Amino acid sequence: MRTVIHFDMDAFFASVEQLDAPELLGKPVLVGARSRRGVVTAASYEARPSGVRSAMSMVEALRRCPEAVVVPPRRSRYVELSRQVFSVFRRYTPLVEGLSVDEAFLDVSESRALFGDGETIARRVKRDIHEEIGLTGSAGVAPNKFVAKIASDLDKPDGLVLVPTDGAAKFLAPLPLERMWRVGPKARVRLRAAGFQTIGDLARADANTLEQLLGSWGPVARDLARGIDDRPVVVGAPPKSLGSEETFEDDLRTRDALLKPILRQSMRVADRLVDQGLWARVVTLKIKYRDHRIRSRQMKLPRAVSDTDAIFEAAGELLGRFDDLAYGVRLTGVAVSGITNAPGEELFPDAERERRERLAATSHVLRERFGTAGLTRASLIREPSVKRDSHT
Questions:
Q1: What is the 3-state secondary structure (H, E, C) of the chain?
Q2: pTM (2 decimals)?
Q3: Active-site annotation, residues
Q4: Which of 139, 233, 305, 388, by CA, is between 20 and 30 Å from 345?
């Protein structure tokens, strides 16, 4: 039987800030921009009893928790400690599937003879991360990914939940629908109207009924509710998308004003591709207008890219497909998808592309070493006021 561990770092960004600034220990910490349009990127556990959560507006978060300390996000530091955490994971198994910088699945089925059962391995991982890095995480140990992920969230922070090999369905049955993967607010309304309250109710449901309520995902939901999940832990699978977006302190209303943040976002996305050795075929530009309307445009490129210029060129072309810029834009975001581990073979070598990719790699290394102030585009030296930089 398989043994899967889902490991989730506890309030990772906020915990890193408390680690680096011990005077913040025990205090409510919010990571994000302190402004009228700022958004909470992460909240420490000390802030959460006030009802503060990530993705909440900073204004609302500070209304609920006025004593909170607000610190700006430091992406390079989070990535640095994430790498240390993942090196601990790989100490116990090569089968590690990263879901984000602070979350991963570990298949330890073949590691039990060397390190002990799943619970023992999870405790060793938690101990090593705490002693060597100074952070805590919560783990769920179960026979598959779905159950392990739910388990890890039930005893946070610094928790460990063990689900016996033959006890997945029993473990899931009393849990509310909110714990069920891919059951959003609208689906919950439909399910509750039909008499479903718990995951156990889904497990006992007729497949046809669930298909009527949830579409083609209904039968899959019933299997998951019964603790059945055959998905393997996939090593090295590239993320489905990478992105960067910013909310502006003041609305921007012209193409020229918008191109600067779009260039900056393209640079960040390119850095992340280079950092992970990835290329992308699809570029998406998102805009949020003054009245909170969100629109996006997408372009598929003729070949996979990983450099700022190619991403920015596509995003700039997409910007021309938006109307009403003069109405006021409060946010832009650049994202890439169609991500691959290899750029693909070309019939004729493209010297210009190779030059751009070498430049992207060199620029990334310099920014990682000296910070963004050490190397940037000349056109970004005078940049519009922004209050949030978020990544997906």
A1: CCCEEEEEECCHHHHHHHHHCHHHCCCCEEEECCCCCCEEEEECCCCHHHCCCCCCEHHHHHHHCCCCEEECCCHHHHHHHHHHHHHHHHHHCCCEEEEECCEEEEECHHHHHHHCCHHHHHHHHHHHHHHHCCCCEEEEEECCHHHHHHHHCCCCCCCEEECCCCCHHHHHCCCEHHHCCCCCHHHHHHHHHCCCCEHHHHHHCCHHHHHHHHHHHHHHHHHHHCCCCCCCCCCCCCCCEEEEEEEEEEEECCHHHHHHHHHHHHHHHHHHHHHHCCEEEEEEEEEEECCCCEEEEEEEEEEEECCHHHHHHHHHHHHCCCCCHHHCEEEEEEEEEEEECCCCCCCCCCHHHHHHHHHHHHHHHHHHHHCCCCCCCHHHCCCCCEEEEEEC
A2: 0.71
A3: 103
A4: 233
